[in-house]
Specification:
The protein is α/β, with parallel strands linked by helices. The protein has ten helices and nine strands. The strands form two sheets. The protein has a seven-stranded mixed sheet with strand order 5-4-3-6-7-9-8, sandwiched between helices. It has a two-stranded antiparallel sheet with strand order 1-2. Helix 1 crosses helix 2, helix 2 runs antiparallel to helix 4 and helix 6 packs across helix 7. The N and C termini lie far apart (67 Å). About 2% of the residues have low confidence. Keywords: Methyltransferase, S-adenosyl-L-methionine, Transferase. Belongs to the protein N5-glutamine methyltransferase family. PrmC subfamily. It catalyses: L-glutaminyl-[peptide chain release factor] + S-adenosyl-L-methionine = N(5)-methyl-L-glutaminyl-[peptide chain release factor] + S-adenosyl-L-homocysteine + H(+). Methylates the class 1 translation termination release factors RF1/PrfA and RF2/PrfB on the glutamine residue of the universally conserved GGQ motif.
Length: 302
């Protein structure tokens, strides 16, 4: 552990000293979290340290800088050290703390499912936009934490949102988030995609597994701690997406929409599958980093 300069009579470091130590410790991740698609930086180390110290102290980021000379209490210092040492093993901060912010809410997270990511918030915005064009229930396939479906339900309480996941633990987690956030217009149950789904929906939304099983992306960074079953799909990452597109028409209302998150190179192939299954208005849009990330289309009844 990096030595921390402290006054002789001090039992614990100040906030500023703790931030310096935590950042130095987290920088070890630059050697294990860097690759062609993932790069752990000095700024990432600072960010992780701030988040963990805020949680240990139960304060805001602003407090850290306003009171940087304030000595940390012994229990908070011990908790912070423990979390930093776990972070150094590569465990994602969200799993360490058991929560993740997403679309103006905070969701409980666990290793049984993926950590909600900022780019997926675009999927929520798009679902709300399309629902205004085709009123009716919304279906969230592979809901995981429930972040997508619950965010839609919270943003528009008049929408009935149904969510499913194949993993029983994920269903329980989504239910916990529903109860915690007190969302009434949301229900979740176990299903292998559409297997136990009934009824028709105005909007179907999904962030399915889409990473190729042999992708080097899976060997670098925090992602090695996330469940592979929620990340990977055969057929160049397209197997689950093809299943969803081909089966969705049976569950869509007239003029209904299907919205899918996917890998940055998969847009053209997904557009082709949409077209082969009588979808129209097929469109691919980019994420915050400018990468093609979401393709959506409207089902054309024949």
């Amino acid at each position: 552990m990096t030595n921390i300069p402290m006054a002789p009579d001090a039992q614990c470091p100040t906030i500023g000293q703790a931030l310096e130590w935590g950042t130095q410790e987290c920088e070890v991740l630059k050697s294990t979290h860097s690759g062609a698609q993932t790069q752990y930086t000095d700024q990432d180390a600072k960010t992780d340290t701030r988040i963990l110290l805020c949680a240990a102290l139960d304060v805001s980021t602003a407090y850290l800088f306003t009171w940087s000379d304030k000595q940390i209490a012994a229990d908070a210092w011990q908790q912070f050290q423990t979390w930093i040492n776990v972070r150094k093993t590569g465990q994602p901060v969200a799993y360490i703390l058991g929560k993740q912010a997403f679309y103006d809410s905070e969701f409980l997270v666990a290793p049984c499912t993926l950590i909600p990511r900022p780019e997926t918030e675009i999927l929520v915005d798009l679902a709300l936009e399309k629902h205004r064009l085709a009123a009716g229930p919304c279906l969230d396939l592979g809901t995981g934490t429930g972040a997508i479906g619950l965010s839609i339900a919270i943003a528009e309480p008049t929408i009935r949102v149904v969510a499913v996941d194949f993993v029983e633990e994920a269903v329980k987690l989504a239910k916990s988030n529903q109860e915690r956030l007190r969302v009434a217009n949301f229900e979740v149950f176990q299903s292998d995609w559409f297997a136990t789904v009934t009824g028709k929906f105005a909007v179907i939304v999904s962030n399915p597994p889409y990473v190729e099983p042999d992708s080097p992306y899976l060997q670098i960074g925090d992602i090695v701690h996330e469940p592979m079953t929620a990340l990977t799909a055969v057929d160049n990452g397209l197997a689950d997406i093809k299943t969803i597109i081909t089966e969705a028409p049976q569950y869509l209302l007239k003029d209904g929409w299907l919205l899918l998150e996917h890998g940055q190179h998969q847009g053209p192939a997904i557009q082709t599958v949409f077209a082969q299954n009588n979808f129209s208005h097929i469109t691919t849009i980019c994420d915050y980093a400018g990468q093609p990330r979401i393709t959506y289309a409207q089902y054309e009844f024949i």
